[in-house]
Amino acid sequence: MMKNIGLIIELNNGKIKETNFGMITLARAKNTELFAIVIDADTGVLKEDLESFGITNIIDVMLPEGQQNNPVICAKAIITAIKVFNISLVCGLSTAKGKDLLPRIAAFMEAPLIMDCHAIDPEQNLVKTSQYSGKTIATIKLTGEVLILGVRPNAIAPLKAHTSARIVPVELDEKNLVSKGFKVIKTSETDESKNINLADADVIISGGRGMKNADNFDILSKCAEKLTAAVGASRVAVDAGWVPYSMQVGQTGEKVSPLVYIACGISGSMQHFAGMKTSGMIIAINTDATAAIMSNCDYYVKADALEIIPELTKLL
Amino acid sequence: MQLYVCIKHVPDSAAHISIVDKTHIDENLTFLLNPYDEHAITEAVRIKESLPGVEIIAVCLGKNDADKTLRSALAMGVDRGILITSDKRHDSIETAQALKSAIEQDGTPDLIFTGKESIDAEGMQTMFRIGALFDFPVATNVVRVDIEADRAVVDSALSGGIVNTYELSLPCVLGAGRGLNTPRYPTFPDVVKSKKKPIKKIMFKELNINVSLAGMNIVELEPLLQSREPKEITGDAGEIAETIIRILKDEAKVI
Ligand SMILES: Cc1cc2nc3c(=O)[nH]c(=O)nc-3n(C[C@H](O)[C@H](O)[C@H](O)COP(=O)(O)OP(=O)(O)OC[C@H]3O[C@@H](n4cnc5c(N)ncnc54)[C@H](O)[C@@H]3O)c2cc1C
Ligand SMILES: Nc1ncnc2c1ncn2[C@@H]1O[C@H](COP(=O)(O)O)[C@@H](O)[C@H]1O
């Protein structure tokens, strides 16, 4: 039997974020039809991109005026689309927005949900995710009429598969689109094209206690600018007040999977590893050759990060 | 005002995890209060100190020895505890049903706190499920909470530096994030005092939970093996920088 898979497309400034294409690639399987669920966008403009990754249906969802940032309204509109198009598996990205949206959909539908999946078998309804602070990989079987998955950004590289797609609007019943007892007072939409988000970054350069002070993080930012990288930090650097908490990588910070993670003056505690161990390549720069990270990386440099990074920036 | 805090008994984040029977971890290790739930408790205590007539009740679904974690919560300022005992591992659909049912049996919640995530299951969803079952509004990863007469105004920080301000009518469910506060750890007198505070135990099966058709079942657990083979980059600073650039270009293909 044909299975309908819904993919919630995350946009940035009206454009499709690159990480969506990896998610679509991960969800593709035999006997499935792919439905992109696109919210408040000019779907005509996005059609070609979606078609080049195997999408055959583009569901055009328009939220009522003034509700664009309300995750409750958005969840309810997506539930309508799920029902109208008989979708039995829904994928969205495990990003900032996804973490406030996907669990709402799952809770309203009493549907199973696994966040941060890095592998999906849509035929068997099996997924893989990390558990126990990233120390184990769990294979989980989901059961239910509709299954919801949060996909880890950058879990796999996008692979093209050309199709042609039709655009179908979904009728929303405004009476159902209420968010009882919940109001959005303010949102701080950051322009992610300027400020590279840790969760989506291809390259992350992170600093720890070895950076010694807040000013030295500028050294990392300058290098990151040249590399189009995001800057991360260990908890020690955050607790010392050198950088904001939103930059923390680790078990109690952001969980990231960039293609390359450059750790500067970070010892590699279990809790830090919990947030970055799935990185493609890890490069460690540390003055202490016995630091844990030096034996759990791909390349290590036994040197002062404050000397190496400016040199790197100069040559880039 | 009754303030409920859902707390989970989880393996210490620094502990080594080993797997038995392919689907379970060896539980012979230190269990602690889930770190985000410490923020939830600390916030509840702060609210109690600023408003008259607040009672804080911690609720935990876990094995019998999870009472240790409830004791830690009592020492941090919670008034009393409820332990729903079960030897099984429950998914978040069942967990939310059990927590809801125990809370409902016990009193009338004005506010329910959880952590934003449990560090063992990493589910990030129990608060939303509790909210849906009660039909209460929910916000997660809250980093600021202001309780006004019949509403809560919260900042919800969902990574990447994005902060949304939400207004929720009471009762509501809030998932505490790390930026919310600094957990206040108990002093010795707090610990002594907490010994007299009551913990009520109920069995999971006494709660009459509906069997849900929906579920999430772990069919296999594997250790995340790291097969990285570290190679050293040597030379003076300039040479090292050149080598790194070559690796980023040729091997990682990111520049
Ligand atoms: C419940 C819990 C949750 C936690 N969550 C997190 C989390 O999410 N993220 C996190 O990071 N931590 C977390 N931690 C903290 C963690 O245990 C470590 O304390 C922390 O990661 C250490 O940070 P660090 O590597 O910067 O500092 P350190 O361990 O002090 O390491 C500093 C390193 O810098 C090196 N160094 C010094 N000077 C230089 C130099 N000039 N150039 C190069 N190298 C230099 C040193 O050799 C050393 O290896 C958590 C802890 C607990 C208990
Ligand atoms: N077994 C449990 N007992 C009590 N609270 C729980 C339990 N499981 C989850 N929670 C609460 O729900 C939050 C989120 O958990 P999770 O959805 O598993 O990430 C936790 O921080 C706890 O506050």
In short:
The complex is a heterodimer of chains A (316) and B (255). Chain A is an alpha/beta fold and 316 residues long. Chain A has helices at 19-27, 43-51, 71-84, 96-109, 216-227, 235-239, 270-276, 305-315, and strands spanning 3-8, 11-12, 15-16, 32-39, 57-61, 89-93, 113-121, 126-131, 136-143, 147-151, 166-169, 182-187, 203-207, 230-233, 260-264, 281-286, 299-302.
SSE topology string of chain B: EEEEEHEHEHEHEEEEHEEEH
Ligands present: flavin-adenine dinucleotide, adenosine monophosphate
Structural class of chain B, by secondary structure, is alpha/beta
Largest sheet of chain A: 9 strands, mixed
Mean pLDDT of chain A: 93
The CATH architecture designation of the largest domain in chain A is: 3-Layer(aba) Sandwich
What form of chain A results from the Cα inertia axes?
A: elongated
Q: What's the overall geometry of chain B? A: globular
Number of folding domains of chain A? 2
Oligomer: heterodimer
CATH topology (fold) name of chain B: Rossmann fold
Q: Could you walk me through the main structural features you see in this protein, from its secondary elements to its overall organization?
A:
The complex is a heterodimer of chains A (316) and B (255). The N and C termini of chain A lie far apart (53 Å). In chain A, helix 3 (71-84) packs across helix 4 (96-109) and helix 5 (216-227) packs parallel to helix 8 (305-315). Chain A has helices at 19-27, 43-51, 71-84, 96-109, 216-227, 235-239, 270-276, 305-315, and strands at 3-8, 11-12, 15-16, 32-39, 57-61, 89-93, 113-121, 126-131, 136-143, 147-151, 166-169, 182-187, 203-207, 230-233, 260-264, 281-286, 299-302. Chain A is an alpha/beta fold and 316 residues long. The longest helix of chain A is centred in the first third of the chain and has 14 residues, at 71-84. Chain A is built from 8 helices and 17 strands. Chain A has 2 domains: 3-169, HUPs (Rossmann fold, 3-Layer(aba) Sandwich); 195-315, 3-Layer(aba) Sandwich (Rossmann fold), CATH 3.40.50. In chain A, a hairpin with a 2-residue loop joins strand 2 (11-12) and strand 3 (15-16). In chain A, the strands form 3 sheets. A 9-stranded mixed sheet of chain A has the order 9-8-7-10-6-1-4-5-11, sandwiched between helices. Chain A has a 5-stranded parallel sheet with strand order 14-13-15-16-17. By secondary structure, chain B is of the alpha/beta class. Chain B has a single domain, classed as 3-Layer(aba) Sandwich (Rossmann fold), CATH 3.40.50.620. Chain B contains 6 helices and 15 strands. In chain B, strands 11-10-9-12-8-1-6-7-13 form a 9-stranded mixed sheet, sandwiched between helices. In chain B, helix 2 (67-75) packs across helix 5 (188-194) and helix 3 (92-106) packs across helix 4 (126-134). The N and C termini of chain B lie far apart (57 Å). The mean pLDDT of chain B is 95. Chains A and B meet through helix 4, strand 7, strand 8, strand 9 and strand 12 of A and helix 3, helix 4, strand 9, strand 10 and strand 11 of B. Strand 17 (299-302) of chain A pairs parallel with strand 15 of chain B. The site of adenosine monophosphate (AMP) has 23 residues of chain B, from helix 1, strand 6, helix 3, strand 8 and helix 4.
